[in-house]
Amino acid sequence: MCQKSVWMTRTVAIGALLGVLGGCASDMTGVISSDVTAFRRIEASKGAIPDHVLAGARAVAIFSSTQAGLVIGGKGGDGLFVKRLEDGWSPPLAVDLVEGTIGLQIGAQSEDIVYIFNTDEAVQRFLEEGRYAVAEMSGSFGETAGRSDGAELPTDPVAIYNRTSGVYGGMVVGGKGFAIDMELNRRTYGPDVTVDQIVNGRVDPPPGTLVLWKLLDTGETSDRHAGVDTGS
After folding, report:
1. How much is the pLDDT for 11?
2. Beta-ladder partners of 60
3. What is the pLDDT of residue 123?
4. How many angstroms separate the CA atoms of 158 and 115, rounded?
5. In DSSP terms, which residues pair with 166 in a beta bridge?
6. What is the rounded distance in angstroms from the CA atom of residue 28 to the CA atom of residue 117?
7. Under DSSP, is residue 59 helix (H, G, I), strand (E, B) or coil?
């Protein structure tokens, strides 16, 4: 009976994890809407991104995701990546958030994450490799907000700001990262689109993009470098 209970518990946990990883938005407009909301939540939290950090960003990636786990955990979510251009920002590039963890952990948690790329070299490396990853050790309870370890200075190649809510705890060792989602990019921009065309503004932006651009340029609680052309 005990073994059966353990098996059932693991089955439920695995099912929840698959549901998390499979519960992504189906189109770019939905991704933009979800990630704009995530960005606003971070800006309203105690871990808000400083004005000068966002003003100097060479690119930004935004995610809203849900995490669930029991012993083995995972996280999935759709996100977007925009690159700063001479006249504003690029159309959004679809990216997938991927995270795996191993350790003593239990619970469920939602998380909003913003990656700030501070150098052109960091942007180019991500675009050439098609992925970005970082190792971490974490565990949290309740709502938290702030920068990740290794993101204490805005001069770091990539700074990570996050806001979490829910209950999720334990001694966890894992890694988080994201990769380019060409399937969604092709559904959005056309079957022959390339990453270079998207991030250099040579495609028509999907609905909702102007809201994202204005949010990155001006925020909603401060006057960020308002002279930048948003492409509207």
Report:
1. 37
2. 82, 116
3. 96
4. 7
5. 109
6. 22
7. strand
Residue indicated by tokens 């100097």: 56
> Residue 65 burial by CB count (10 A; 0-12/13-18/19+): exposed, middle or buried?
buried
CA angle 150, 216, 181 (to 5 degrees): 70
CB 61 within 8 A of CB 114: yes
**DSSP H helical segments within the chain, as ranges?**
2-22, 28-44, 51-55, 120-129, 182-189, 195-199, 209-218
- Asked if 13 and 68 count as a contact pair (C-beta separation under 8 A), the reply is yes
Please give the single-letter amino acid code of residue 194.
T
3-state secondary structure of 199: helix
Q: What are phi and psi of 3, to 5 degrees?
A: -65, -35
Residue 162 near residue 115 (C-beta atoms within 8 A): no
Q: How far apart are alpha carbons 189 and 59 in whole angstroms?
A: 20
Among 56, 58, 38, which residue's Cα sits nearest to residue 47?
38
Tens-digit pLDDT string for the chain (232 aa)? 444 443 343 333 334 333 333 344 469 999 999 999 999 999 888 878 988 899 999 999 998 875 555 544 444 568 999 999 999 999 999 998 776 555 555 555 677 889 999 999 999 999 999 988 765 534 433 334 444 433 344 457 898 888 876 554 554 444 567 899 999 999 999 999 999 999 999 999 999 999 999 999 864 433 333 333 333 3
